[in-house]
Amino acid sequence: MRVAGAAKLVVAVAVFLLTFYVISQVFEIKMDTSLGNLFARSALDAAVRSTKPPRYKCGISKACPEKHFAFKMASGAANVVGPKICLEDNVLMSGVKNNVGRGINVALVNGKTGELIDTRYFDMWGGNVAPFIEFLKAIQDGTIVLMGTYDDGATKLNDEARRLIAELGSTSITHLGFRDNWVFCGGKGIKTKSPFEQHIKNNKDTNKYEGWPEVVEMEGCIPQKQD
């Protein structure tokens, strides 16, 4: 009886040890697999982060140098989607902000600090050009001026208004016509013509939309005004 009992004990201990060994091996395999998956995911995440292109202010294609303001803007699309003006990653004017309208849309920015001074739009189809002229005359030296058309920005423009915009650095304003698309960035007191201007003529043979040309977009880096 004692021998049989001892044999049973030995078998029980052997079974226990074998079970413990099998469980430990399985657990170790699962641990190895989990750690392997974890390291693989970490390596994949790192690779994705390293290959993902960097995002620059306003979504422009490259970073601006120091002492420059990043900007991006687009004209309106036909008479459906309003223009958009972004500076230093801040949307100054857009349809979402509900501060754009038919005609010429204008954002004024402090040339030293980049702070927004004012936003306005002037209806150049059914409105009066006189308030626009007074607005242009009141712009202070050193102010950055960003403009974009929506629908029609030219019908009510007269020679005086065009001259005042030309003094801000615009070249295209002299021949801006009915339903042309135009975006411009200049400044009060600028001594040369601005390099930041895009203009597409309204032409029934080339228009993207019925009665309107395609949207014009522009981006760049505006030098900060120095004392």
Summarize it.
This is ILEI/PANDER domain-containing protein. The protein is α+β, with helices and mostly antiparallel strands and 227 residues long. It is 30% helix and 25% strand.
N-to-C series of helices and strands: HEEEEEHEHEEE
Helical amount: 25-40%
Taking all residues together, what is the mean pLDDT?
A: 85
Please tell me how large the radius of gyration is. Answer: 33 Å
Q: Kindly report the spatial arrangement of strands forming the biggest sheet.
A: 5-4-6-7-8
* Biggest pleated-sheet summary: 5 strands, antiparallel
Query: How many helical stretches?
Result: 3
Beta-strand segment tally: 9
Termini gap: 107 Å
What portion of the residues fall into strands of 2 or more residues? 25-35%
Q: Uncertain segments of ≥5 residues (pLDDT<50)?
A: 20-33
So what's the overall shape? globular
Helix/strand class: alpha+beta
What structural keywords apply?
globular, alpha+beta, 30% helix, 227 residues
Protein described:
The chain contains three helices and nine strands, in the order H-E-E-E-E-E-H-E-H-E-E-E. The chain is of the alpha+beta class. Helices cover 30% and strands 25% of the residues. The model is unreliable at 20-33 (pLDDT under 50). Helix 2 (129-137) runs parallel beside helix 3 (159-166). It has helices spanning 2-51, 129-137, 159-166, and strands at 68-74, 84-87, 90-93, 103-110, 116-122, 143-150, 181-187, 196-200, 217-223. Strands 5-4-6-7-8 form a five-stranded antiparallel sheet, with helices on one face.
